[in-house]
Amino acid sequence: MSRGPQLGEAGLCAVPDDVLSATVLARLECPRDVARLSSASKRFNALAGCENLWRSLYCERWGEPGELTRRAAAIAGGYRRLYGSKDVTEKAAAPWTKPCPEELRASVEKLATRLVGDVQQVNVVFLVDGSGSVNAEEFEAMLGFCVDASNQLAESVPNLQVAVVQFSNDVRVEVGLAPLDSEALRKTTREMVRMNGGTNVAVALTKAGQLLKRDAAPDAMRHVVLLTDGRVDSYQAHEARQVADQLADEQRHVSLFAYGVGRGVDRAELLHIIGGPPTCAHVPVSHPHYHLHHNLHAGGQPPQPPQPPAQAPPQQVVPVVPVQVVVPVPVPAAVPQATQAAGGGDAAAAATTAAALTAGFSVCLSAFGEAPEERYLALCTRDDAPW
Length: 387
Hints:
The protein is α/β, with parallel strands linked by helices. The chain has 15 helices and six strands. The chain has helices at about 10-15, 15-25, 30-40, 40-50, 50-60, 65-75, 80-95, 100-110, 135-155, 180-190, 200-215, 235-250, 265-275, 290-295, 345-360, and strands at about 120-130, 160-165, 170-180, 220-230, 255-265, 375-380. α9 runs antiparallel to α10. It is globular. Pfam families: VWA (PF00092).
């Protein structure tokens, strides 16, 4: 019984790569099939490493990659390696959800970014949730992140200051804002005792603002890192958001980050607190408002509002019936009554506020104009209700 003509090795070599990809790789539905195919020959091994293929497989499992994921893929050396790293992490962490090492590194890299050169001081205040809805394991995960993130930052930031503040109903400054001492930080976090109680994010953000205003250099980067489950009522969330807005209004180069830790993390509430809709519109990097914000913080001058064009005097006076025209003007959701100077004489912050009034947009709680989704990461989460 004849099986028909067979495609030999020579014939296989004559088939173009794009044809092989379309007829073979496109029909593979899972990474295991791709891995098996890659062991068949050197050519299939090369084709199975195609970035577009692994990016497609990544999207099918975890969704469309954002900026942080794209950076994590670059750190990993491609989507194939990132897929493998996330798969291993996911299986090892189950039933918890945790980021893979490359995602963590990409997230912490954001804290090292500076606006006015490599000599600019970077200040990071970690706000650790010690409330009753966080158990001992989750508390340890937050403290471990503080230590690991600080050590990673120290590799690329020569002028780094770090603080650790624990909060529940009240706050407790565990490590004051000062140059990083890795051993002292590790020792302190090992000895920290969880406070228990409620979750008052507003009082934690207030304390972070006080530390930054008192101990940070005038032109320093100011990063506030909130580690919590975000489970607060609507009034507390509104209050926290008001304090966050005030912090961004009063001090330059401020960015708020959130890391979800615990059971039943309220991601939407955390995004709202650190700068999500509806009260704080995202200003993308490509948007002219971002460049205005960036240039002002870098010491530039705000652009002058456009002057109305000169009009020639009328040739004759014609009586007309007055008509009232109502033009909708965007009004910032939170406009400061007075801009306080951070570190003494913050003229650029005042200029930013004036420009915001002129442009009609609200303050973005990110020095780089990043969307809140790019400043959030699920550090150690589960979907079930708190214990």
